[in-house]
Amino acid sequence: MQSDDMIWQVLNHQFCSFKTTIGKALSDKQHFCRHPYSVTGLCNRTSCPLANSKYATLREEDGRVSLCIKTVERAHSPKNMWEKIYLSRNYSKALAQIDEHLQYFPKILIHRNKQRLTKIHQYLIRMRKIELKVRSGRKAKLVGVHRKVEQREERRERKALVAAKIESVLEKELTERLAKGAYGDIYNFPESPYQKALQTAEDKQEETEALSDEEEEDEMESMVEYVEDLDSEEEIEDEEDMEDMADYLGDGQWGDRHDNSDEHGDEDDDDGDDNDDDKDEDSASRKSDYDNLDERKRTAAQNKRNNRKKGPRIEIEYEEEREDQIQPSSSA
């Protein structure tokens, strides 16, 4: 007894002399059948002529098309397994014969046989045309097909398209034309490329504005100003010196002028009795000068004291030798 499933398991998983594979990678591998009675040339369960006890196919021999039918009743006799029926040269009559002889076969098998009949008739017509040209003296030029060369050219074309960046170039050209107003006021462009081109133009404009702002900030930072340090140690010392000068009373004496005004009056009376009238006049003029100078220095020191920060107080002592103090010692 013939079992189609068992035959297919052996042919598919173990070995089949008619099976061939094209493609090296697992994703590109495809199995084909080289059996002369295969209706499609593919290696699968429905197209295998060995694993189907009820099968039909078309064959062409010397320009004649024949329908080969295999049934399970003749499986015991391999010599008579295939029934050969010659079809008409007329295409429509051949289709009618296929429907008549395969009316109890699966519809998918009938459809595949009709497709095979169409292909056979097409290449027979081309063969007749080529033969007529040869007989009339016009020899047809036959061009060979180089599969490897075609595949190499296809790979080069794909790489060239990727390198050319046609889409980006077209978007750039469209943006420039729209900016120049080459298309007027009415447009009918695809929505997504148009919006993408506008977004690209806006992004470029924002980048240029950001760069200009950064350049302005860099220019402002490059402008350096040198400002005097009012709180330096030298300024503090000068201000404190001015404060000490404000307390100078004259005649080598230091203190508060307002608090010691009475003491100065008594000392002037005692000294007036000992000195001459010329010395009194000189001392009075110097005193008035010192009063004016002390008043100005006191005002300036007070203003600076209000503006400066508080710091440690430094006491400075000055020693002066005056002519009116040296003369009595020399006369004595």
Task: Present the secondary structure layout.
Blueprint: H1 4-13, E1 19-22, E2 30-33, E3 55-61, E4 64-70, E5 82-86, H2 91-101, H3 107-135, H4 147-164, H5 166-180, H6 191-222, H7 233-246, E6 248-250, E7 253-254, H8 261-274, H9 277-307, H10 323-331
Antiparallel strand pairs: 1-2, 3-4, 4-5, 6-7
Whole-number mean pLDDT: 76
Number of helices: 10
Class computed from helices, strands and strand pairing: mainly alpha
Distance between the termini: 166 Å
Percent in strands: 5-15%
| Poorly predicted runs of 5 or more residues | none
Proportion in helices: 55-70%
| Gross morphology | rod-shaped
- Strand count: 7
Could you spell the SSE succession in H and E letters? HEEEEEHHHHHHEEHHH
The major beta sheet can be summarized as:
3 strands, antiparallel
Rg from C-alpha positions? 61 Å
Major sheet strand order: 3-4-5
List keywords for this structure.
single chain, 332 residues, mainly alpha, three-stranded antiparallel sheet, two-stranded antiparallel sheet, 10 helices, 7 strands, rod-shaped
